[in-house]
């Protein structure tokens, strides 16, 4: 028999079931079992999708954002520290040398970690590859500049300028690009973790299953003159329980995701941006002095960074203490520029790398670091809380749906047996 004729025959037989009481019960049984199986399947998929998205957000996207900021801040601080050590002349202070080495180690470790979190062939992987090869070239240029500076050779300043140019023109933009990619992935991660499409489909199926259960019991009550069909009543109760469980688990997840965004990733991104801009300021200050009168580009960049940072500091995520500390650093910087502009280069250098300027800057960045750490802890706590219960939904959602199907089968099968 051709397939179209077979299909027409099946449809006629199904249509014929509507005209007999047993046939109608068979149709209701088929509809309820289909809805029950689909509800269980979608409940499991919803829980799995939400758990997977939440896990990816906490274990990959947000850590990648933190690593990108670490790469940027470590490289920016290394550039600043190298310039300050260069300004000291001769044998660099041991503290600055150690800080420079620590910065490069932090950057290298973060690059390696970021490489494990980025898929091959994407923009993030390309940025990581450029950073990985560029850091080695940068370190070599700085080493040459330091060696020449120890010998009093003026060419050391050229190597330092070349290293800084590589850092600012290639490495830092790539780190910032990685940071922006990670920010987008964090935003996408919240959408993925919410699993809106699966949730809506699950809600529709639960409502349809409950509605058909109620209609079936109403039909049986009229047809058999029995008030209740106990298995179907139990199936209805379990459907309500499943619906309430889904609502509680997903509402809790969405609430924690919202707090993870509001109290965690969003302020962390703004604070990290502030730290990046602050490090640019400090680097521009040292490189302006190292350029000895030809550092107008660094002066312009300092002014631009200050404008952006002051605008950012007006955000509610920043305390008055942080604003005051930044202003204290700017006051010290103005004294440095005043001394240098008036020809007192040595005193300008001494002030720039001395305790007054250094302490005001480090008080500001230390304050930023503390707040960033607090918000990272908030994010981790909320993401962990958001993941609770999703595993239960993935496992017990389908199991409850199967139990509902079993009760439906028992309840309607008993009525079908009465027609034999």
Strand content: under 5%
Distance between the termini: 32 Å
- Helices and strands, in order, run as HHHHHHHHHHHH
Round the mean pLDDT to the nearest integer and report it: 85
Indicate the overall shape.
Answer: elongated
Rg from alpha-carbon coordinates: 33 Å
Structural category is mainly alpha
Please count the helical segments: 12
The helix content, as a percent range, equals over 70%
What does the largest sheet look like?
none
**What is the number of independent domains?**
1
Which consecutive residue ranges, at least 5 long each, have pLDDT under 50?
none
Characterization of this structure:
The chain has one domain (14-417). 89% of the residues lie in helices and 0% in strands. The protein has helices at residues 3-16, 21-88, 94-117, 123-150, 155-194, 196-224, 230-290, 296-313, 320-341, 345-353, 355-387, 390-417.
Brief account:
The protein has twelve helices and no strands. It has 420 residues and is mainly alpha-helical. It has one domain (14-417).
Observed structural traits:
420 residues, mainly alpha, 0% strand
Write the layout of secondary structure elements.
Blueprint: H1 3-16, H2 21-88, H3 94-117, H4 123-150, H5 155-194, H6 196-224, H7 230-290, H8 296-313, H9 320-341, H10 345-353, H11 355-387, H12 390-417
């Amino acid at each position: 028999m051709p397939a179209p004729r077979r299909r027409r025959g099946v449809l006629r037989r199904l249509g014929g079931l509507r005209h007999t009481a047993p046939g109608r019960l068979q149709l209701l049984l088929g509809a309820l079992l289909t809805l029950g199986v689909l509800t269980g399947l979608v409940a499991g998929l919803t829980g799995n999708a939400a758990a997977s998205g939440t896990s990816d957000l906490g274990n990959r996207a947000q850590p990648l954002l933190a690593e990108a900021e670490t790469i940027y801040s470590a490289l920016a601080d290394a550039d600043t520290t190298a310039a300050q050590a260069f300004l000291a002349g001769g044998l660099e202070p041991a503290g600055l040398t150690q800080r420079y080495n620590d910065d490069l180690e932090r950057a290298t470790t973060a690059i390696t970690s970021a490489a494990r979190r980025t898929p091959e062939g994407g923009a993030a992987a390309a940025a990581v590859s450029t950073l990985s090869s560029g850091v080695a070239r940068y370190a070599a240029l700085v080493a040459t500049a330091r060696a020449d500076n120890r010998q009093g050779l003026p060419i050391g300043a050229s190597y330092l300028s070349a290293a800084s140019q590589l850092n600012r023109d290639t490495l830092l933009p790539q780190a910032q690009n990685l940071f922006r990619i990670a920010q987008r992935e964090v935003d996408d991660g919240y959408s993925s973790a919410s699993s809106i499409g699966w949730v809506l489909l699950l809600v529709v199926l639960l409502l349809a299953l409950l509605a058909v259960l109620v209609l079936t019991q109403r039909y049986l009550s009229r047809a058999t003159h029995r008030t209740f069909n106990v298995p179907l009543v139990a199936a209805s109760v379990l459907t309500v329980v499943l619906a309430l469980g889904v609502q509680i688990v997903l509402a809790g997840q969405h609430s924690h995701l919202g707090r993870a965004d509001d109290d965690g990733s969003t302020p962390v991104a703004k604070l990290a941006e502030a730290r990046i801009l602050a490090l640019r300021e400090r680097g521009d200050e040292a490189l302006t002095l190292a350029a000895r009168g030809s550092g107008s580009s660094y002066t312009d960049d300092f002014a631009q960074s200050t404008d952006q940072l002051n605008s950012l500091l007006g955000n509610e995520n920043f305390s008055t203490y942080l604003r005051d500390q930044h202003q204290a650093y700017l006051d010290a910087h103005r004294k440095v520029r005043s001394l240098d502009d008036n020809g007192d280069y040595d005193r300008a250098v001494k002030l720039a790398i001395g305790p007054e300027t250094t302490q005001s800057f480090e008080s500001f960045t230390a304050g930023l670091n503390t707040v960033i750490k607090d918000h990272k802890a908030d994010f981790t706590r909320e993401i962990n809380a958001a993941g609770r219960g999703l595993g239960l939904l993935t496992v017990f959602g389908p199991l409850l749906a199967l139990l509902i199907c079993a009760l439906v089968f028992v309840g309607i099968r008993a009525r079908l047996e009465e027609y034999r």
